[in-house]
Each structure stands twice: as structure tokens, then as C-alpha cells.
Amino acid sequence: MSDDERVFDDDEKQRAWLEGCRREEAISRLLERHGDTRLSIGDVDEVAWELGVSRATLYRLITAYRAKRTVSSVEPRSRGRRKNAFVLDRKREKLISQAIREIYLKPERPTMTYLIEQVRAKCGRAELPAPDRRTIKARVDRIDKRVAALKRKDSKGAKATKAVPGQYVASRPLEVVQIDHTEVDLFLVDETTREAMGVRPWVTLAIDVFTRMVVGFHLSMDKPSRVSIGLCMLNAVYDKSAWLKENAIDARWPVAGLPEALHADNGADFRSKAFSWACREEGIKLIWRPVGAPYYGGHIERLIGTIMGRVHFYPGTTFSNSTARQDNDSARFSAMTFREFECALGWEIAGRYNQEIHSALLRPPIAVWDEHEASTTLRMPKDRMTFWVSFLPDAYRKLRPDGIWIHDLPYWSNALSAEVGRHAGDLLIKYDPRDVSRIFVQHPSSGHFIEARARNLGFPAISLREWRLARKALRQKGRGERDNDQLMRTALAQRQIVADAIAKTAAARKTSPRPQIAVDDFDSGSMTGIDSRIPSRLELLDRQPNVKAKPPDG
After folding, report:
1. Which residue stretches, if any, does this entry annotate as coiled coil (predicted)?
2. For 25-45, how does the pLDDT look when each residue is reduced to its tens digit (9 = 90+)?
3. Is the pTM of this model over 0.85?
């Protein structure tokens, strides 16, 4: 709206529009009758009388209509003050402008109420009439919103005023895969006790930018790490038929293969050397988002939002925020175990998301994948075992005669028998947190990874987290079974025994005389190299100081 326009309400707008239509019809007829010839004063006066305006006003309307040929160009203007017209005196305008600049546009982000208080205080000191609240707010509203947000260090406001027209575009399947983590808005229950767990799970998701297919996911009770990314990549690259069958998920999930590029944020897990090495080893290019620009990962962010929106229908949901949660006790209503939720999440991805019409594609993602799969050269890892272990967490352990100890468990492989007692250095160990019944050991001679099983062959294929929780529960059970009172009485009794023994020994040493050396105490036995004979009385007297030996009688 230009500065010379006035403010209309809805009724005024309707009346102005109808009057503009009447004027447009009358003026267009006038111009058609005369064509390129000059307008006669009589015809102008006749049309002016018809429209109820003066001759000068009609000439002005004719000029405006010839320039734009629109109804709005001849609409009547509303009466009253023009929009954005300020009528304060120069002193108060200057005072308000100075207060906005020195008080409001600061990183502390003072409120509008505080600004109004300060302006009125300044006006009072200057003996000027205090301006109305709306007057001050109108001056603030005239400031460019982005300029105000930057000066007030308002990142949210600055983000809202920044244009982001670009988007990540791919031309073929698996050209670019975006990956990210999020904490699930759901509480789960323990597998055994069905009691609510105090922490929420994390999910890592990967999506193909071209087809919008979810290529893989990984659910974990641990916080995001390169382990989460690696296990998500394992799920994304290999065929998922066995996993779907194991979890009784009756849905197709055909996507598989190495991506050409992996697009991720700047988290430490994505920047780790081990993860970068594993990707580079398989020819996967790593692309990181610009810092502070989450909109560059829009595809994965929208996927996370969609999946979390479905999670909010499950029992135990925390919803997306406290406002939506209200007074709902999420932990009390939780009912799903980790494995049940993982299965439900698999159904959600393979059975719903990949099958529903995508708003950007106007087609289901799985249909786009099926269409381009035949014409796409899918790459698979050169060596399954090498790729498998490259994303797994590692550790270094020594080879002992009883095996390799890690996670407080001994592991053994017959392939390591020849190295016992011969290899002094540490061995590189790779382990799968989902299954602690086995580890992968880099053979010191060949450099290849071999599988080592838990020495107890009946050890179940449980996760590292389950194993640690089981040991923690056993320790707690042991603490509950021991008699702390008995242990305390034992410690006090032992302490008293020691104290009594010390006191008795000290008293005995004080009362007993110092032992005197007697001649008969010498051992008469002979020893090699030592004069062990009994000394004569004269020799004994010579050894005592200040005593002269008397000559023998006779």
C-alpha cells in the first residue's frame, strides 16, 4: 500500500470498489466516444455531473485511468489521516527514536512495556506530553524486522526473515542420502518387569533425496554416536528381507545399496575419523551442512517430523512439547517394550511412509524407487565382513591364554591359538552393541577380521545394554542379600582385637627387664670363616672400656 492511500474497513472497501467500477465505466465510455481527439468541455462537465465530482477531479481521474486502465486507479480515497502519517512534534519524535535506538534495539531484548516506561520518563523529565502506547509501538513497527532481530540478537526472528528458496535436489536414486538422529517422543517399559524406563530411545533415520524412500533406521536406548550411524548404514545398505521376516512385518522394503554421498550435520559423531574412514573406504562422499543452516537438511527434518507425529498416537508419548502434553503422565501410560516399538517403527516406515503419496512427489516413494531401480547401478560393499566391522565401535585388548576379555566376558576363537604367548601387542577388537555373544578380532598375521564367540557357547545374543543392566541388577541383588549389620559387627570386633593386642604388647614391653648377654649364651658350634670358640675371661675384660686386666696370680 502506498503512502497516499488511506486505511479502509471492510464496508468502506466494498463501497470504494463499487464507486470505482462506476467511475471506470463512465470514463471508459467518454474516452471511447472521443478516441484520439481532444475531450470537449461539455462532455467532461456532463460526466462530472453524472459522477458527482468537480471538473478538476474528473480530469485527474481521467489522467490516472489512462496511465493504468484499472478500477483501483479511479477508486475514491478514504477520508482521514493517511497511513503511517505521524503528527507528533519534532522533539518527541526525536526522543522516541533515540529511546528505541539506545534501549529497545539491544541484545538484552527489553520488552515493549519497558521501552514505553522509559519514553514516558524521558518525556516527563523534558516536560513534554507523554505519547500514547500505540504511538510508540507504531514507531517500533516501522523498523525493518530483520534489522531489529539482528540488533536484538534474536536468532528466531532473524531466521523467520531469512529467505531459503533453495533445496537439495538429486537426479537419481542413492545419489544423496540424508541422515540424522532424534530423541523419540515416547517412554518404553522394561522387557522383563514392564516397568517404565527413565530414559527415552533415540532413532537414527536415513532418507534418499531423489525417491524420498527411507533407506534405513536404527533404534537405540543410548545417545547418538558413530555406532548409531554405522548400524543405520548397515541397515540401509543391505537387503532387509530377513529383518522384515524376523519381525513378522508383511511389507516390501526393496531399497539397498551404497549411497554416492551422505549428507549430515556437523555433529561430532559424523565428523569422527573412524566414520569418515569407513565412508571413504567404500567410496561414499561426505557432505556436511553449513553451520547454523538446518534447512539444508530439510528432507530428513520433515521425515523426522512425520515419524514423530505418528509416534504421538502410541501409549507413553511425551508429545512434541509441554503445551501439547498438558498434564499427561507419559511414563505412567507407557506400555511398549523396546522390541515392540522397534517392530511398530518398522511397520510405520515400510508399511506406511514408503507407501503413502508424498506431497512433493505426488506419488508413493516406493513407486518412484521401483521405476528407477532397473536403470540404476547399485553398488554393494566389496567385502561384507570388512564393511560390517568398519562402522562398529572398536577397542584394543591383549590376547591371554584364557582368551580376550571385553565387557567382562571372555571370548575365544581357535584361529588365535597359534598367537597365544607369541603376540605381545594389543589386538584390534570390533563389537556389535546389539549382540555381545560375539566380537570381531583383527588377526595379527593376516590382518583380516575373524569372529570370536563368547567362551560360554550358551551365552544368549543379547545387546550390550541388556548385559550391563543384567550385571547391574545382579550387583544390586547381591547388595540386598548381604548382612550389612553382620559385616559392621565383624569389622568392629576385628578392630577391637587389634587394639587389645597392641595395648597388651606395649604393656609387656614396659615391665620386662632388658635382657643381659651371658657368656654361656654364645653358641659353641663351629662355623667356617668365623671364630666361634668361647672367649677367655681375660678377653672379655679387655672388651669392656676403662677396665684394666689384672695379671694372673702366680
Report:
1. none
2. 988 888 888 877 788 888 888
3. no
